[in-house]
Design goal:
mainly alpha, Nucleotidyltransferase, domain 5, Actin, Chain A, domain 4, three-stranded antiparallel sheet, two-stranded parallel ribbon, 41% helix, globular, cytoplasm, Actin-related protein 5, Actin, ATPase_NBD
Length: 236
């Protein structure tokens, strides 16, 4: 967005997303610990609760290789008896003993390798830019006079941005590839999952007959009607 206009010709899409992460974590857990191939919801919950973005992947990888370390944790699966959702047991905690009927497994590399896929998709064989490269390549495709403004208005939305450490890692990865004369400011809303919906809701509340497409109009003409209606707010 620039001056309230969608810069349609500069919108980029990465070939990696949350489903890729969940699928890979499901594969790792099933191979190393317990079969969860048919429990997508369970693995997704595990991903959201136990994983975080490493600020120094190589260093954390060495840390995890030690028998007793500060990163590996135990994860207890729901047993539908005492426990109806998964629980993370951080190192040196004694909470695991509370759930004697539930099944647990240890998470080490999975905690950091799962979100790392967003920054290095090539780790799982996906030919795509990482988040930082995608952000910078999108910005530098714009006229240079806009770079500074856009770099100071990066907003994180979507469930993947909720991983602890995501914001700082993005800044850290952007800094070496962005010219030093530009400052970088990244904003993380309190509700990244629904932030876009709330923005769209505010647009729809504006008393403007061209600000929205009714359900009937969409069913009659589909996406073509949306494009025609919103063309006035787009820069191609």
């Amino acid at each position: 967005m620039l001056n309230g206009k969608i810069m349609q010709g500069y919108v980029k899409q990465l070939r990696i997303g949350g489903k890729h992460l969940t699928e890979k974590l499901k594969e790792w857990i099933s191979y190393r610990h317990v079969i969860v191939q048919n429990d997508m919801w369970l693995v997704n919950e595990c991903k959201e609760k136990a994983c975080f973005v490493s600020q120094n992947f190589t260093q954390d990888e060495r840390t995890i290789s030690a028998r007793n370390n500060s990163i590996s944790c135990d994860y207890t699966l729901p047993d539908c008896y005492d426990l109806y959702e998964g629980v993370v047991h951080e190192p040196n905690s004694n909470t695991k003993s509370k759930y004697i009927y539930a099944q647990s497994f240890k998470m080490g590399m999975e905690r950091i390798a799962t979100p790392e896929i967003l920054f290095r998709p090539s780790d799982i064989g996906v030919k795509s830019m990482g988040i930082a490269e995608g952000v910078w390549n999108t910005i530098r495709s714009l006229p240079e006079r806009y770079w500074g403004r856009i770099l100071q208005n990066i907003i994180l939305v979507g469930g993947n941005t909720k991983f602890p450490g995501f914001k700082q890692r993005l800044i850290n990865d952007l800094r070496p590839i962005v010219p030093q004369l530009y400052s970088i400011q990244v904003t993380q809303p309190e509700n990244p999952d629904t932030y876009i919906w709330h923005c769209a809701k505010r647009v729809a509340e504006v008393e403007d007959e061209f600000g929205f497409v009714t359900r009937k109009e969409y069913l009659d003409r589909g996406l073509a009607n949306c494009r025609q209606r919103f063309d006035r707010n787009m820069q191609v």
